[in-house]
Amino acid sequence: MTETAPLTGAPRDAPPGQRDRREPAMPPRPRTGALLTGLLRTARPKQWVKNVLVVAAPAAAGRLFAPGTLTRLALLFALFTACAAAVYLVNDARDADADRAHPTKRHRPVAAGQVPVPVAYAAGGTLAVLAPAAAAWLTTPAVAALLLAYVGIQLAYCLSLKHVLVVDLAVVTTGFLMRAAVGGLALGIPLSRWFLITTGFGALFMVAAKRYSEAVQPSAQAGATRALLTEYTPGYLRFVWQLAAGVAVLGYCLWALEEGGVPDTSVLPWRQLSVVAFVLAVLRYAVFADRGTAGEPEEVVLGDRALALIGLAWLIMYALAVADW
């Protein structure tokens, strides 16, 4: 009886030319429904909550509920979500091979083969072009320029900047700051120095806390979580998040104590009282940073009931302070 080769059914004693003509079995093409689901998962729906920061500048200026503001902010949210999705798609396509060797990232749709790499590149590139173009048509040139800059910086991060010490922290922080600033650009709201300082260093605090948490995990010693973590020391990352937290608190306190020539007509000094809730929120978040469990910021905030309640109290006091302007 003729012996057959495993998986192919071709005779082992077949002529060499016949064996050379055999092609390896190709993986089945993903179905349309599975492909769309994979693209949606690659766009990171859980990360979309970060784009709520587009309301920061209008809320800080007390113009959140002005006529037409919420409609514009909803558009900005959608545009920033599209830009972020473009970056995630390109990032996962580029890192597909490395993600397959990671214990968690290997389940990402691109790494798992649910979304082919060329499709991820094509979808990401399309969104990267269409989102700024739609912003130029539907909003202001300043917003379109900011979105284009965001896409360019984040793609540069995916390609090379994420391997550069300190610059990687600055780029991720800039992404948060751009989200917070775009609402002011769209509505013509001047961005105060205290707003920029508090937002920027608050973002750096959370980014550095996340990096520190990754660095102290056992897998970080082999660079399994993020290759650059082998270049950082936990002590340095601890210094960064502590410094950023201190500057963010200082910036907020200076805003709260600066009257700016506006008489305080409120029953209670809500601006000053909101400092208490803000500091408590930073201190509570620092607990998770110090433990090395500060992962994604939205998961930390929404996963801890005490922190969520402190944040809600701060939002109420901040709203009352802004309403008194």
Q: What ranges have pLDDT less than 50 throughout 5 or more consecutive residues?
A: 1-12, 17-27, 220-225
Mean pLDDT: 83
* Major sheet characteristics: none
- What's the CATH class label of the largest domain? Mainly Alpha
Number of strand elements:
0
- The count of helical stretches stands at 14
Helix fraction by DSSP (H/I, runs of at least 4): 55-70%
Q: Give the count of structural domains.
A: 2
Strand % is: under 5%
> For the record, what is the CATH homologous superfamily label of the largest domain?
UbiA prenyltransferase
CATH topology descriptor of the largest domain: Tetracycline Repressor, domain 2
H/E element string? HHHHHHHHHHHHHH
- Give the overall silhouette: globular
First-last Cα distance:
92 Å
CATH architecture of the largest domain: Orthogonal Bundle
Structural class: mainly alpha
Radius of gyration: 24 Å
Give a short overview.
By secondary structure, the protein is mostly helical. Helix content is 66%, strand content 0%.
Please provide a written account of the structure.
The chain has 325 residues and is mostly helical. It folds into two domains: 45-191, UbiA prenyltransferase (Tetracycline Repressor, domain 2); 212-325, no CATH class. Helix content is 66%, strand content 0%. Helix 4 (69-94) packs antiparallel against helix 9, helix 7 runs antiparallel to helix 8 (141-159) and helix 10 runs parallel beside helix 12. 35% of the residues are buried.
